Amino acid sequence: MQIHVFDTHVMTDSGQYIHFDVLVNNENIKEVEQYAKQYLASLGVKIDNIKQSRCNFCHSELADLEVQDNIANQGHSIIRL
């Protein structure tokens, strides 16, 4: 399965830096921002507390089995960096 990697960087008002990748297939590219927001919420980061963020397309690659399973079940996969 070919996937697309979106490199995501977030700085909160309190100075916390969070770096992660959002991995999606062709069908879910338009949902990348929503997946990033959901992930941040799962970490307890409120969108209102974000000072600066970016989520940019980085590259495409073949997905390993774990990422394929995550995308099949959730529509995306997250890798914390």
From TrEMBL:
It comes from the Bacteria. Gene3D superfamilies: NE1680-like (3.10.510.10). It holds the Pfam family DUF2024. InterPro entries: DUF2024 (IPR018592), NE1680-like_sf (IPR023122). This is DUF2024 domain-containing protein. It comes from Colwellia psychrerythraea (strain 34H / ATCC BAA-681) (Vibrio psychroerythus). The lineage of its organism: Bacteria, Pseudomonadati, Pseudomonadota, Gammaproteobacteria, Alteromonadales.
